[in-house]
Amino acid sequence: MLKRKPKELNLSDASPATPAAQPRIIPRSEHAISRSHISPNALRVLYRLRDAGFMAFLVGGCVRDLLIGIEPKDFDVATDALPEQVRRLFRNCRLVGRRFRLAHVFFGRETIEVATFRATSAPSQGDEPLPEADPEDGEAPELDDDAVAVAAEPVAPARGRGAAGDDSDDSAERAFDASGRILRDNVYGTIDEDVWRRDFTANSLYYNIADFSLWDYVDGTADIAARTLRLIGDPETRYREDPVRMLRAARFEAKLGFQIAPATAAPIPPLRGLLAGVPPARLFDETLKLFLTGHGARSFGVLRRRGLLQVLLPTVDAYFASHPGSLIEKLLLQGLENTDARVIADKPVTPTFLFALLLYGPIAGLIEAAPPERWHEVATILDACDRATREAQGRIAIPRRFSLGVREMFALQPRLEHPRGRRALRVLEHPRFRAAYDLLLLRAQFGLASADMAQWWTQVQEVSAEERARMADALTGEGPARAAAGPRRRGRRRRRRSGSPAPA
Ligand code: ATP
Ligand code: MG
């Protein structure tokens, strides 16, 4: 066991957080992580690796979250077992990734990711495009709820192995592009090399299943206590290797309420343009993590303040820059807050609704650019949706099913605002009705659609079929009849302007 080595606390911003050669080992009695807060499946994986003679640690966000006292989203394991050795240990396991082989161990709906220690500053698993099953792995693994399967064959312990195991692919040497981005690296390493490839000190603590101690190479525990987000190593180099780390900094600032250390924040403005070179599919994934995990409203604020929205969603940023304090911005923030509340209440949320909120500004801007008499024509609205999506696709690969959903949500707005007779009720069966109705409610909340009409749709969903038909018959063509709608409608001038998502 490594001894704790005295080392100066690395809290000054002048010097980069450089991993120590040996970790500070914090015994179980001196930290707050209890096994009762760790997923039983993660514990099963850790114990099985340990019992087979391997090193096994929980690592990354889950250790950070356990120390802060919040529930981890998922549990990641780091080990000195090579991917093939992990696979042989678990029947419910599949290897994924091309540049890096990672093992996914499945337990019903929970997946525990097991990564072999990597050499120095190799990019993270987040850098893989998307985990895909390897053809050679054949069939999908049997999903096995009841813990781990017994190893099919005995596995030799890997203790004492050097930086690269026998079957590691050392030939895949590290390669960088012109801006310093790592393109390829596939060399397995030791735990004290693995720490280098992690991003922030707070994300670099290892919980050792052998004795329940914490291994800290970078004063991550001190940074967590001080609520500081600090990149390991030279920040500029780390952002150049992987520009997504800028978005991750913003995400953790929003999620954890940590302060980004000045030296970690300083290179963001000059380097944020590098995000334009990141594969759009990866930026889509990061966008969902920023906005659909319970802190979307705060993410939006951080992205704007740090100038990152202008690279992630340039047209959204431009719309708000040219319409300061607009109703659409208020609508977006309210929509993000509603989404956050749904995530926290464990209700489903959809990328379609998220992108409808985010793209509302650019869509409205494009509609406004058309002659006013065309603003509520469906063709104008659809054209604006298509153009706004196309422009956003320059950076973020929005899958088609979501962009089509956004289109439908906006196209339904005039139908919801000007229902005509009983035929209007058919829209209730539309697969996108619920999302379109939610958007209508938000628009009405900010005076961008008739509140009477929003109220009418709320009511019509709650009443019997007969009452529904009666309400539809009572529609005047100008909106709900007074008897059904309750409060007096607004003046004619204002009503005539509604029916278009444009704000005027
Ligand atoms: P979350 O709470 O969102 O799951 P997380 O810290 O666990 O946060 P993940 O994306 O799940 O983030 O990654 C797990 C760990 O892998 C991180 O804590 C970090 O140590 C490392 N990591 C992930 N992405 C990167 C990256 N782009 N650069 C460096 N290290 C990374
Ligand atoms: Mg995680």
Fold and architecture overview:
This protein has 504 residues and is an alpha+beta fold. The chain has two domains: 6-238, 2-Layer Sandwich (Beta Polymerase, domain 2); 330-484, cca-adding enzyme, domain 2 (Orthogonal Bundle), CATH 1.10.3090. Helix content is 42%, strand content 9%. The protein is built from 22 helices and twelve strands. It has helices at 40-51, 61-68, 83-89, 191-194, 220-225, 235-241, 244-256, 262-265, 268-271, 280-291, 296-305, 309-312, 314-322, 327-344, 351-368, 378-393, 400-417, 433-445, 451-462, 465-473, 482-485, 492-497; strands at residues 24-26, 56-59, 76-79, 93-96, 102-107, 110-116, 175-176, 182-184, 205-208, 213-216, 228-229, 259-260. An eight-stranded mixed β-sheet has the order 1-10-9-2-3-6-5-4. A two-stranded antiparallel ribbon has the order 7-8. A two-stranded parallel ribbon has the order 11-12. Strand 7 (175-176) and strand 8 form a beta hairpin. Helix 7 (244-256) packs across helix 11 (296-305) and helix 15 (351-368) packs across helix 16. The protein starts with 23 loop residues before the first strand and ends in a 7-residue tail after the last helix. The relative contact order is 0.08. Residues 1-12, 121-173 and 482-497 have low confidence and may be disordered. Bound molecules: adenosine-5'-triphosphate (ATP) and magnesium ion. Residues 60-61, 73-74, 76 line the site of magnesium ion (MG).
